[in-house]
Amino acid sequence: MLFSAILVAIIATLSQWWVSHTVTRTWLYPIWVGFLVAVCMGEPVKGMQAAAYIQLTYLGWITAGGTMPGNLMAAGVFGTALTLISGAEPSLAPTFAVPFSLLGILINQAYMTLNSFWIHKADKYLEEGNITGLRVMNYVPSGILSAILYGVPAFILVYFGGEFATNMLSSIPQSLIDALKVVGALMPALGIAMLLSYLGKRKLIAFFFIGYFLTIYLKLDIMAITIFAATIGVLMYLFTNKNIETEGEV
């Protein structure tokens, strides 16, 4: 468990540090970061199921105008980890993830605020022409801070939290667990509804219904529909550009 706790702590640290955006933007999403946590904890299948439930909750997630309705990385890491160490059903994962997501907003605010101090120090090094100092201030302190705010709590949760989480769940009345299952089922529906609110445009809604009928009536799987949609997208792009070029020549 020690090794798993260390790996999860590293994942939690990297999911917030600048490295995550350099490698791939998918670090942002529970379906990916939760899967990594599950692999490190030795339960990839159950962990992927838990991460998928969490991902459904945040399908319509967007940081418009600088707002942050939830910390997806915290939800994916801590929600998946707590689901696995407690032995709970994957369907309960969103009920674990959402509190961590909301707490993650406050942690992210602290993270960004404290990082501003290193920026001022980096500006000073830049004025002095100290490029090495500038690079150190840009990369190192933020990594240490991410490890403290995200990595250490993740390590504590995985290493010390198993027995506590199990005892906590065993003490919860069955009626409350059933209620949590209902809430967990409704939250993905809310995420899907948020996503549909973005698709409810005259130029986009037709594609939604095409995909729906391909799934329901033609029984196509997601991969087939994705390839079909990508092909249509390429054709639309090519013909649209061709029309624009033709109009420009005229």
Features:
250 residues; mainly alpha; 2 domains; 0% strand
SSE topology sketch:
Elements: H1 2-16, H2 18-23, H3 30-40, H4 44-57, H5 72-86, H6 93-128, H7 131-170, H8 174-199, H9 205-216, H10 222-249
| Ends apart, CA distance between termini | 70 Å
Strand content: under 5%
Low-confidence stretches: none
Structural class: mainly alpha
What string gives the helices and strands in order? HHHHHHHHHH
Query: Average pLDDT value?
Result: 78
Q: How many helices?
A: 10
**How many DSSP-defined strands?**
0
- Give the biggest beta sheet: none
Quick summary:
With 250 residues, this protein is an all-alpha fold.
Q: Would you mind describing this structure in some detail?
A:
The protein is mostly helical and 250 residues long. The protein folds into 2 domains: 1-199, no CATH class; 202-249. It contains 10 helices and no strands. α4 (44-57) crosses α5 (72-86) and α5 packs across α6. 29% of the residues are buried. The chain crosses the membrane at residues 26-45, 57-85, 97-118, 139-160, 180-199, 206-239. Keywords: Cell membrane, Membrane, Phosphotransferase system, Sugar transport, Transmembrane, Transmembrane helix, Transport. It holds the Pfam family EII-Sor. It comes from Clostridium tertium.
